[in-house]
Every structure is written in structure tokens, then in C-alpha cells.
Design goal:
Blueprint lengths: L5 E4 L2 E4 L2 E2 H8 L3 E5 H14 L5 E6 L6 H9 L3 E4 L2 H9 L7 E3 L6 H10 L3 E4 L2 H14 L3 E8 L21 E2 H12 L4 E7 L10 H19 L6 E3 L18 H16 L4 E4 L3 H4 L3 E12 L4 E5 L8 H5 L5 E3 L7 E7 L8 E9 L6 E4 L21 E5 L2 E6 L4 H5 L6
Parallel strand pairs: 4-20, 5-6, 5-13, 6-7, 7-8, 8-9, 9-10, 9-11, 11-12, 12-13, 15-17
Antiparallel strand pairs: 1-2, 2-3, 4-14, 14-15, 14-19, 16-19, 17-18, 20-21
The chain binds pyridoxal-5'-phosphate.
Pyridoxal-5'-phosphate (PLP) binds next to helix 10.
């Protein structure tokens, strides 16, 4: 049974029990709307799928880093996977536990490493031999030992969009499997470091379990070899990447339960060694909890096409422009009307500024509202100010109430920090 956080009540599309039209009229458009119930359900489902093996769920903050979203996950007991000092600041501000943080990324600066050491994070996912040495020096300077996991590149094809494939040998992430053992042997001897884990993350929006299990099989052999070398591995971090259904109708990704069962089997050889499983899910936690609600400004038809021009743009939701992604769409009122074929586009001066091409949708008149679904992950988090557009507000719904968790940006905020010369 799938829970649907955005459903029609009569002719009106609601988030939980709140009509989206009410939010649009009170907060304005474009606006991001999230269902707290769906966020909680998705987190619990993922966590429950790993029940029975010692594990930690480190939510990938980059998927949606709004404080109001992080605070919900903090209350559920989540850890965090961060990729910058700024994300650490957000996580701590949301009340998150530093000890449950892992810090990933190929280009952590010394300042970020120091910040994370001072905060007392759980582990660094180190991605290169040079980073090993810099972190050792920074940690000794701070008089502490940094706990590290080495991110390896398992060289498996995640069969996803090339921009979000990260575990192939031509990608910039991690160190080659063949170098990992020697590098960890060396790291183990450094006074500023304590080797505690191995890590990988092979890509995002994966729709099969086999790339995960192939990658885990490689981590398992590495951990077995390290154990033979006398290096005790406390945790194996298998990254994030589980896909969600964007409603395109081209097959469903594995459920968290299917994913959990596959991961559990693949990791079985290590369970006896008392290894803890870490995961870094982002999209699968927040993706379906969020939607972008936008208002139609104009319609037009030329010889080739019908266009629906809306007040949201690629600066608000970049995924279609960046990856050609599909997002489901529905009219916020009266869904039962006959459909036309239309391109849904924004006001930005780029042909890439589109949300859908040749989509079947009821014809929406100026002033009507459109729901763009499955926008909770990599939506607001990737928003920009391109075309000097203030970023959209964000609203968190719980039952029949909602909270504005982020105000619409003002022109003053947008220009703050700039000067004429
Ligand atoms: C982006 C990222 C994730 C989260 O990926 P999802 O596809 O959103 O689950 C996890 N770990 C790392 C290192 C990442 O870069």
C-alpha cells in the first residue's frame, strides 16, 4: 500500500488535509509544500527495512537542507551525511547530533575539516591520499584523532543518469579499490587518524538492487582483507542512491524493504565480525514528501506547440533543465477536464527553462494552479537566484495545519552584501 500525501478531496488537491489553493493564496506562488507525515513515513520505512542488523541512517543533507525538514529528521533519530561546512552548520542548528554525522566529498577544505573536528563529528569519508595527510595534520593540530572511513570507488555501473553516477572509475569520487588497502594501512599508522570504516556511494536514483549488491560485495572483500591486515573496521557505509517513483510509468525502483533485504544479504559475511551498516539516503526520504506549486501566467500556441507559462522556473526546480528529469504534474483544481498536449515552461530566458515537454494535462487558464510532484529532493536545495529571482518559500504541512519553514526571499536579502564599487 502506498501512502499518497497529495490527494484530491473532492475537486481540490490537498497536502494531507490542507488545500494547496489555500497555501497558494496565503503564502503566494511559487511555493514548495512538504508533507510531514510522508517525511516521517519514508524515514521510518527506510529505517525499518534495515531492522535486525546494527545500522545508522545518515540522511544526505544535500537532498533537502531546509532547517524545518532537518528538524523533523532529527526528532526521528536520524544521523546526517554532510558534504560541506555549511551543511554541518545547518544540521547543528536543527538540533542534530554531531556524533551521528559523516562528512563526504572530494574537496573538503582545511577550514571545513577543522570545523567538523571541533564539532566532534562521527567520521570523515576520506576520498584521496592527499586528504588523508591533510586531515592527519589538521587533527594533530587540534590535538585530536579524526575517525575516518575510506571512500572507495567500486567501479560498478549504477545505470542511472551520467551526471549522478559516482562509482565508475572515470568518476572523481573515492580511491580505486586496488589502492584502498595500502592507503588504509598507511593511514592507520598516522597519529592524527583512527581508521574506523570503509565507504562507497555509487550514484543516485538507482532503480535496481544489483549495482548496490555488486558494490557491497567489493567492500566485503576489502574489509576481509583489512581484517587480515589487523585493521579493525567498525562500520561499512554503503552510501545513498535508492531511487523513487517519479510517475513516468517506466518501471518502479526497489522498495526500501527490497533494498534492505538485498543489502542485508550482501553484507552477511561481515555481520559476524560485528560491523555496523551505515547508509546515506537522501532522495528516498524527502523526494515524494515535497511538491512545487506554481501559478499559470499565460498560454500560447505557435505552429509547433502549445505552451503553458508558469511563475516557477528552472531557478526554483532545476532537475528538468539539468538532467531532463520527469516530474508528475496535476492541476490543483478540477482534474477531470479533457487533456491537451503542452510544454510547461517558466519565465527564465533559457530554452532549458522547462518543467515538461509534450505533457498531457488539462488546459489550465491564467491564474490556475499546477502541482509539480516528487520535488522534495534536489528541489529547493538546488534553487538559485538566476534572473534575480527570489527563492520560493517553503511550507511544512502536518494534518490540517501548516507552518512556513522558510520565507520567500526579498529583493533586499537578495542584494545584501553587494555594492556598486
Ligand atoms: C548525494 C549523496 C547521497 C544521497 O544520494 P540520494 O540519491 O539522494 O540517496 C549520499 N551520499 C553521498 C556521498 C552523496 O554524494
Amino acid at each position: 500500500m502506498t501512502y499518497e500525501p497529495f490527494e484530491y478531496r473532492g475537486d481540490e488537491l490537498c497536502c494531507e488535509a490542507v488545500p494547496l489553493a489555500r497555501i497558494a493564496s496565503e503564502v503566494g506562488t511559487p511555493v514548495y509544500v512538504y508533507s510531514r507525515g510522508e517525511l516521517e513515513r519514508a524515514y521510518r520505512a527506510f529505517d525499518a527495512a534495515l531492522e535486525g542488523i546494527p545500522h545508522r541512517v545518515c540522511y544526505a543533507v544535500k537532498a533537502n537542507s531546509s532547517l524545518g525538514i532537518l528538524a523533523v529528521l532529527v526528532r526521528l533519530g536520524a544521523g546526517a551525511d554532510i558534504v560541506s561546512g555549511g551543511e554541518l552548520v545547518r544540521w547543528l542548528k536543527a538540533g542534530g547530533d554531531a556524533g551521528k554525522v559523516v562528512f563526504s566529498g572530494v574537496g573538503k577544505t582545511e577550514r571545513e575539516l577543522r570545523m567538523a573536528l571541533d564539532a566532534g563529528i562521527g567520521a570523515f569519508n576520506v576520498e584521496s591520499a592527499e586528504e588523508v595527510d591533510v586531515l592527519d595534520r589538521v587533527a594533530r593540530g587540534a590535538g585530536v584523532r579524526a575517525r575516518i572511513a575510506l571512500r572507495v570507488n567500486p567501479d560498478v555501473d549504477p545505470q542511472t543518469h551520467p551526471y549522478i553516477s559516482t562509482g565508475l572509475k572515470q568518476n572523481k569520487f573515492g580511491v580505486a579499490m586496488g589502492e584502498a588497502r595500502a592507503l588504509l594501512g598507511r593511514a592507520q599508522k598516522l597519529a592524527g587518524l583512527e581508521v574506523v570504516g570503509v565507504d562507497c556511494h555509487i550514484g543516485s536514483q538507482l532503480t535496481k538492487t544489483s549495482p548496490f549488491t555488486d558494490a557491497i560485495a567489493r567492500l566485503v572483500s576489502l574489509v576481509q582483507a583489512l581484517t587480515g591486515d589487523g585493521i579493525r573496521i567498525e562500520h561499512v557505509d554503503v552510501g545513498g542512491g535508492l531511487g523513487i517513483d517519479y510517475g513516468k510509468g517506466d518501471g518502479l525502483p526497489p522498495t526500501p524493504a527490497e533494498y534492505g533485504a538485498a543489502v542485508r544479504d550482501a553484507l552477511a559475511p561481515l555481520t559476524a565480525l560485528g560491523v555496523t551498516l551505515y547508509t546515506e539516503p537522501g532522495r528516498v526520504i524527502v523526494g515524494r514528501a515535497g511538491a512545487l506549486v506554481t501559478q499559470v501566467l499565460y498560454r500560447k500556441r505557435n505552429e509547433a506547440k502549445h505552451f503553458t507559462i508558469v511563475d516557477a522556473a528552472m531557478n526554483d526546480l532545476t532537475r528538468p533543465a539539468l538532467y531532463g528529469s520527469f516530474h508528475p504534474m496535476k492541476p490543483v483544481a478540477r482534474p477531470g477536464r479533457p487533456a491537451i498536449t503542452t510544454d510547461v515552461v517558466g519565465p527564465i530566458c533559457e530554452t532549458g527553462d522547462f518543467f515538461a515537454r509534450d505533457r498531457e494535462l488539462p488546459e489550465l487558464a491564467p491564474g490556475e494552479l499546477l502541482w509539480i510532484g516528487a520535488a522534495g529532493a534536489y528541489g529547493s536545495a538546488m534553487a538559485s537566484n538566476y534572473n534575480t529571482r527570489p527563492r520560493a518559500p517553503e511550507v511544512l504541512v502536518a494534518g490540517d495545519r501548516y507552518t512556513v519553514i522558510r520565507d520567500r526571499e526579498t529583493y533586499e536579502q537578495l542584494l545584501a552584501g553587494e555594492r556598486v564599487g
